[in-house]
Design a protein that fits this description.
It is a single chain. The chain is α/β, with parallel strands linked by helices. An eight-stranded parallel sheet has the order 2-1-8-7-6-5-4-3.
Length: about 300
């Protein structure tokens, strides 16, 4: 499988106001992403409110739809004499290693191309425990993207620990959401420059350009839920070395990079999508709608960025 590079959307899960899942809205969002040129899709992550979803039938139906829609789109391209890799990177995380292995196996069985596996959260295991967690999921045989986000898990994966993890089989890359550009550059210097097939993806929209300029490979984006074409263009220009052009897009989008998280995620991006008439819908507790002040910030940012 080719190295992951590009813009990958961390998809919201559209819901009706009563909290039930809007499956047709989900299908529509996927089609909009594909038509917008996005590099790949990341369903069932934090942005998708996965902690509140039922494994069956909800998660399984969401997976079935995204895999089938991507397959159908690629078949359509093939009929037009075109081709494009559009990997599905399925969220497959738990702070129970046994369950994480089960979710990675489900991702493999249901046709996903990669599994996104976060650091075990709340338990706050030692470095050795984190290593063994990733050792267990790596044995399933599906390429793994390590997800490092200490702000949500309470535990940072240091570069030295990641150096150990990447020696395991099937470790294909990292979604680096430490928020520390120095750590991200350290990962590039010590891992991806030694292992060119290893992907370093930003987990923060606002750090996409600096990371790629330092040798990174793209972003798992929240903002691309509403602007897939622009985020894809930013990443493509940056990867091509057209930094000045990428910078223009970066600064155009920067107000919304901030506004998309002003009152949490996915609460803020869902409000923005609803405001723009996209199927995002409601939220499930413990998440609630953003504050009136946050609504104004989001609306002003959308207008300022011409989105």
């Amino acid at each position: 499988m080719a190295k992951l590079q590009g813009a990958f959307t961390a998809l919201v899960t559209p819901m009706f106001e009563d909290g039930s899942i809007d499956y047709e809205g989900w299908r529509k969002l996927i089609q909009l992403q594909l038509e917008g040129g996005i590099s790949g899709l990341v369903p069932l992550g934090t942005t998708g409110e996965t902690p509140t979803l039922e494994e069956s039938p909800e998660e399984e139906k969401l997976i079935e739809i995204v895999v089938s829609e991507v397959r159908a789109y690629k078949e359509k391209l093939a009929k037009e004499g075109k081709s494009r890799e559009i990997p599905v990177i399925l969220g497959a995380s738990s702070n129970n290693t046994k369950d994480a292995v089960k979710y990675v196996q489900r991702a493999k069985d249901m046709g996903a191309d990669y599994a996104l596996v976060v650091t075990p959260y709340y338990n706050k295991p030692s470095d050795e425990g984190i290593y063994r967690h990733f050792e267990a999921v790596s044995k399933v045989g599906l390429p793994i993207i390590v997800y490092n986000i200490a702000g949500r898990t309470g535990k940072n994966i240091s570069t030295s620990l990641l150096c150990r993890i990447v020696e395991l089989p099937n470790i294909a890359g990292v979604k680096e959401a430490s928020g520390d550009i120095n750590q991200m550059m350290d990962v590039v210097a010590k891992i991806s420059r030694v292992k060119p097939e290893f992907s370093v993806l930003s987990g923060d929209d606002g750090l996409t350009l600096p990371l790629i300029a330092a040798g990174g490979d793209g972003v798992v984006s929240v903002v691309s839920n509403i602007a897939p074409s622009l985020v894809t263009e930013l990443v493509t220009k940056a990867l091509e070395g057209k930094i000045a052009e990428a910078r223009e897009i970066h600064y155009r989008l920067m107000p919304f990079f901030k506004a998309a998280f002003v009152d949490g995620n996915p609460t803020s991006i869902k409000y923005a999508m609803n405001y723009k008439g996209l199927p995002a819908g409601g939220l499930r507790l413990p998440l609630v709608e953003v504050t009136d002040n946050a609504k104004k910030i989001i609306e002003d940012a959308l207008k300022q960025c011409n989105l």
